[in-house]
Specification:
This protein has two domains: 177 residues, NAD(P)-binding Rossmann-like Domain (Rossmann fold, 3-Layer(aba) Sandwich); 99 residues, N-(1-d-carboxylethyl)-l-norvaline Dehydrogenase, domain 2 (Orthogonal Bundle). The chain is 45% helix and 15% strand. It contains eleven helices and ten strands. The strands form two sheets. An eight-stranded mixed beta sheet has the order 3-2-1-4-5-6-7-8. Strands 9-10 form a two-stranded antiparallel ribbon. The chain is globular. The structure holds 3-hydroxybutanoyl-coenzyme A. The site of 3-hydroxybutanoyl-coenzyme A has 14 residues, from helix 9.
Length: 295
């Protein structure tokens, strides 16, 4: 049976983008957050994004209203009991994800498909003992309304029927699916993380300034943003977490988090979302923050 009712758990940067895209594609969506404050914040983010789309002429006011009417916001996990597909986008922590899916397993019918938007945790580790045949990774990219790719991660236990249903769903939300093997980092982060870390190593070695390294990749290679801007955009804390998970899996130094990444996170500079990362994002244009104590 085709997927019709979707649940999105977690309404942060990724969850709100996923909920917006799914609702805009005509699906009934229930969005769940742990508390009223993050729920209200996530809802505001979605409303802001939809308003921007209307402003830019990409969406009619009627379609915005219809998308919002298809979305229900809740803190009650029980509301997800009638969903055909539940997409999880909570913190990148295996124990937290397993706890959530164990609760959902007791609530949802056996045919409900469980999906995780994890950027690097193996799906099998998350799904073991919890309907592993109806469990996939659905890895979206930031900003979700813009980026066309979704990595569909197939674990060694995911059934062919589940993959077919999920592929059809991804196409219905007008994204491009690819299949990725269930190994930490999948395809994109396997290639992207070493690139980001090499940029940090280059900065640490004084190969170039932060702005010049960013400029080099934008003007020399046609990337839409340089590596430091991209790390700030993804979230420095998120990038660090992905490195840790990949290093734990492969024990390959190329995924080991550089000291500078850890120090910036320790200072609470998580990137664009927190106002400061490698750049200061509080003004109209990002300003590179000095890393030599001269702030
Ligand atoms: N929501 C909706 N639309 C957005 C948006 C958002 N948050 N941000 C930008 N857009 C739209 C704009 O409205 C604009 O649309 P238009 O061309 O129809 O007017 C278009 O995107 C381009 O935006 P801008 O002109 O404002 O700015 P840019 O040309 O600099 O593009 C960007 C912004 C699309 C973010 C571009 O810089 C880009 O593609 N950057 C790289 C993003 C990337 O690599 N993402 C993947 C990160 S890795 C990841 O997410 C995986 C995780 O596991 C780590």
């Amino acid at each position: 049976m085709a997927i019709q009712k979707v649940g999105v758990v977690g309404c942060g940067l990724m969850g709100s983008g996923i909920a917006e895209v799914v609702a805009r594609s005509g699906f009934d969506v229930i969005v769940r957050e742990v508390g009223e404050a993050p729920l209200a914040q996530g809802k505001k983010r979605i409303e802001g994004s939809l308003a921007k789309a209307v402003e830019k002429g990409k969406l009619s006011a009627a379609d915005r209203d219809a998308a919002l009417a298809r979305m229900t916001f809740t803190t009650a996990v029980e509301k997800l009991a009638d969903r055909d597909l539940v997409i999880e986008a909570i913190i990148e922590d295996l124990a937290a994800k397993r706890e959530l899916f164990t609760a959902l397993d007791a609530l949802c019918p056996k045919q409900t498909i469980f999906a995780s938007n994890t950027s690097s945790l193996p799906i099998t580790d998350m799904a073991a003992g919890i309907r592993a045949d109806r469990f996939v990774g659905l890895h979206f990219f930031n900003p979700v309304p813009v980026m066309k790719l979704v990595e569909v991660v197939r674990s060694i236990a995911t059934s062919k029927a589940t993959m077919a249903e999920v592929f059809a769903f991804v196409k219905r939300i007008e994204k491009e699916p690819i299949t990725a093997k269930d190994t930490a980092g999948f395809v994109v982060n396997l290639l992207l993380i070493p690139y980001m870390l090499d940029a940090i190593h280059a900065l640490e070695r004084g190969v170039g300034s932060m702005e010049d390294i960013d400029k080099a990749m934008v003007l020399g290679c046609g990337h839409p943003m340089g590596p430091f801007t991209l790390i700030d955009f993804v979230g420095i804390d998120t990038t660090l977490r992905i490195c840790e998970i990949m290093y734990e899996e492969y024990r390959d130094p190329k995924y080991a988090p550089p000291g500078l990444l850890k120090r910036v996170v320790a200072l609470g500079r998580f990137g664009k979302k927190s106002g400061k990362g490698f750049y200061d994002w509080s003004g109209a244009a990002p300003i590179p923050l000095p890393l030599d104590g001269e702030i």
